[in-house]
């Protein structure tokens, strides 16, 4: 298939391009900058420079493609997420670019849209499992861009077209967020939010790349994508093991956790998310878990 990937130079995009090329697809990676071209080519894709906020520019880039995969994001690392305006670019990407992408894909005759989303939209569900049928916790204005993005994907899925929305677990691997967490763990600084008994659903970025390939086989709908959920206390130990230190990663004190605001509050939630629907429909399985030795170098 001919597949266009937006955000192709990012953490998710690079994994998607490489996995799609390895699966035998012809892949175009979209980047807004000339310096992004060798990054896409390094993963085996062909690069196109285009403005992701411009529907006309995008329609030109998407022409002749069967599928568009949108992996755009700009997530601030660590407590930088508390800074004023830290989420402005991420919001613009989900609110404006994702809508422009869905519209341009339809205009260009693309048949399928695969949209990255997140398990952080679910409410804290304690020790109970979360399936795709769980209502989302998105009333706060901060979640508006993600809601509008989902709506754009649903609107795309008419007139014989299909849209697959992947609610990805918390990414871990070689990415900046996890590298920051490993450094804090090594230095004995607090890094984790929530409580040790809360659940977390993780997804190694290699498995995220493979999930985009598997999503080509999925029917229209929403799918959770993550590994076996573990407690945050277990994750604290896994981080220490990977960081090469004895002491588990530390949790922020409650007083700090109380003031993290809406964006980081999602990281305090207990999210025991089931990916059974995605696994049974596509055959996708996680291959790297948080206790797989050397996961930060893969
Ligand atoms: N589910 C999750 O847990 C999750 C999801 C996403 C990200 N993250 C984490 O967040 C951290 C940052 O990763 P990321 O992928 O968000 O960051 P990123 O690498 O900064 O962004 C991804 C891509 O989006 C494009 N982009 C970013 N800002 C843009 C803008 N203002 N206008 C147009 N294009 C823009 C860039 O492409 P060009 O520069 O080539 O145009 C970039 O390569 C990582 O540690 C990652 O693991 C976690």
From TrEMBL:
Origin: domain of life: Bacteria
Entry GO MF terms: aldehyde dehydrogenase (NAD+) activity
Pfam families named in the record: Epimerase
Domain NAD-dependent epimerase/dehydratase: 3-226
A cellular component annotation (GO) from this entry: cytoplasm
Cited InterPro entries: Epimerase_deHydtase (IPR001509), NAD(P)-bd_dom_sf (IPR036291), NAD(P)-dependent_oxidoreduct (IPR051783)
Name assigned to this protein: NAD(P)-dependent oxidoreductase
Source organism of the structure: Brachybacterium paraconglomeratum
Higher taxonomy: Bacteria, Bacillati, Actinomycetota, Actinomycetes, Micrococcales
């Amino acid at each position: 298939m001919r597949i266009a990937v937006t955000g192709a130079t990012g953490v998710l995009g690079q994994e998607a391009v490489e996995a799609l090329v390895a699966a035998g697809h012809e892949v175009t990676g979209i980047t807004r900058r000339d310096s992004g071209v060798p990054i896409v080519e390094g993963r085996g894709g062909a690069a196109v420079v285009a403005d992701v906020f411009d529907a006309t520019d995008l329609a030109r880039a998407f022409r002749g493609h069967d599928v568009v995969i949108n992996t755009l994001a700009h997530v601030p690392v660590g407590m930088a997420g508390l800074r004023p305006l830290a989420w402005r670019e991420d919001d613009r990407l989900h609110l404006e670019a994702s809508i422009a992408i869905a519209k341009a894909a339809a205009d260009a005759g693309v048949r399928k849209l695969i949209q990255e989303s997140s398990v952080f939209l679910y409410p804290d569900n304690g020790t109970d499992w979360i399936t795709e049928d769980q209502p989302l916790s998105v009333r706060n204005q901060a979640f508006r861009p993600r809601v509008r993005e989902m709506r754009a994907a649903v609107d795309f899925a008419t007139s014989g077209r299909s849209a697959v929305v992947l609610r990805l677990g918390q990414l871990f691997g070689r990415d900046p967020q996890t590298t920051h967490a490993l450094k804090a763990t090594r230095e004995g600084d607090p890094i984790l939010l929530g409580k040790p008994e809360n659940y977390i659903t993780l997804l190694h970025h290699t498995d995220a790349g493979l999930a985009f390939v598997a999503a080509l086989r999925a029917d229209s709908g929403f799918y959770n994508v993550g590994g076996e959920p573990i407690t945050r206390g277990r994750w604290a130990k896994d981080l220490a093991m990977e960081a090469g230190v004895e002491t588990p990663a530390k949790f922020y004190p409650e007083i700090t956790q109380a003031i993290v605001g809406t964006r980081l509050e999602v990281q305090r939630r207990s999210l025991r998310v089931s990916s059974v629907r995605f696994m049974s429909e596509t055959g996708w399985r996680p291959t790297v878990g948080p206790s797989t030795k050397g996961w930060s170098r893969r």
